[in-house]
Task: structure prediction
Amino acid sequence: MLLPTDLHGHTLFSDGRATPEAYVDFRREIGMRVIAVADHDVLAAVPRAARAAADAGLLFLPALEVTSFLHFGTDRAEQFHVLAYFPARFSMLPLLRQTALFRRGERVQAKWKAFVLAWMEGISEAERRAIDPGGEFEALAPADFPALQSMLDRIASRTALFPAFRDHHVRFWEEDRELFGWTPEEAIECIRQDGALDVVAHPGRYRDKERTRAVLLRASGIEVYTSRHKAEVAESFRAFAEEHKKCWTASSDDHQNARYVKPAAGTPVSTIERILGRALPIEAILSA
Amino acid sequence: MIKVRVRKAGTGVAAASGLIALSGAQTGCVAEPIEPGEESIAEAEDELSPGTGTLALDGFPGNFTVKLVNANTDEFLRAGQALSLELPVWLLWDKLYPGSPLPTDLARLKQITATVTVGAIDKATPIASLKSPVTSYSGADSYGLKALTKTFIVPSKADWLTFALTITDLAPAGVSASITAAELSKLAVFGGELPNKSLFMDWAQSTKRNKIIEGDDPIAGAELLLAVSDWRADVVVDKSLIDTQIGTAQSASRFGWVTIPIYGKIVHEVAYGVYFDDGLEWRPEVMLAETPNSRFLGAGRTTYEGKIQVPAKARRMLMYTHVKTYLVADYTGYANVTAKWYADGEKMLKADKYDNPNGAFTNYSFSISNALP
Result:
């Protein structure tokens, strides 16, 4: 039994454009039953999205997309993303705050703010004023500081610095060993210790196929249906997941920068139950 | 459990069991308790029964809400309803000690107490202020622990309820915090304007629902407020199948410049047609007014509303609704538009559907009562 789901998408808290409320409402409109926001490395959208989902009658799973690396610091370096799905009760902020991944997310936000402000030191006063006309950036809490997409939009629409900033911003991930220089296996271990389920995001995207296969064998789940996979790629990963008794999921990886691609299938009830740590009510399954 | 019936009365003030305080209440409709066994079940089902329920504080610092989480009726609050509040203790703790880890010791957490001030409003005028203190706790773990307040009765004339909290930690005496009424959503109350009633047509649990919120039938000679929900209109026209793209724009992304779709805004126009067995024909269709932040659905949701005057002689009402859906081209907010498929502000009809119960030319049918039970 498959449930209509979108368990991976981004909001303005990372490199998406949607508010958490708009993100949820769109998924309600197209008939999703179980949804998650999975911003890069932060759980900041969870409280607002959880409330919107509750109002819409949708099951909401707190989640994030954890950045790790294959071959960090070498010329073969590539980002490797592992999704972490928490049971629904982690929508409660104090509970969420106690997870290692939430605290890591706060560090990511703080370092992002410092990274952007350091870059702005090197631009002209006029450009600085264009990007931050009120001179408010310095005083903003890291959680309120514009995230990646908001910052790109701001720089692109107000200055000619977008190409320079875009080239520069990759260093945020590539040069911070403490936050991002861990392996997918280390990220998976952290996710599990937090009580969440680890699911490898869009496994068809990674260049190092051998390492990817090793991580998939280690992981609890695989993102099978995603806009990043062609149909035949998705089917091959579904076969892999079923052969190796892995959980698998169906999502969009929507950043609101292209037409929405609805997942070609749903997510098995067993995956959702594994995340929740309990059986789904039968009425929830039937209504889906 | 107290069973409550709302009746019309000319004088007197509310005197219901569980009413903690009622100051400045106007006279009129009152709530009174009914002893078990006083009336048969059939008779009881025929009358307006506001029921009982539990409200819960929800949300996170800076964005709190109060909502009905449990009721023996439905999701609507009614005049005369017996209510209590459950307050997650972790939320109270977080308000007192922001960011501090939640103790696991339940005895410690039970030293956190609160009093909820419930304000009743009738047509923008405050009519009552009820104090509902915490009287007990339930829950077996620190995140599941809830403080439960004393029951109160929704004043009979109320249109809205507001809420404010005073939170106190009894351990280090003097530590307290508050959540003001301005920080909490207010909740609409129905049933205070009888014999006028409300017909709510929405989309709930994947089915079309037509509900007289005050119960029973519309009343002859009274007003019936018709409200069609945004989601009901969406379903009637199957909004999910409407392509809302109106152009493209160039946008910055972390992978470079990308071409993104621009989506227009969907706007419904909802009208209704009505017929009564009063010897007249079908009335001409009447447009309903778009009502944002609907009283029926809360902030962020829209209903389409209009008042139907039920003729004094009517005993049956037939009706349908008619939804026209437009795509409005709005390119504001996009700096680098690369293609406009429509002119600025252009409004294109995308769907024109009737909401009938069983296909074209069938109608929703309601019997009309000549008086309140």
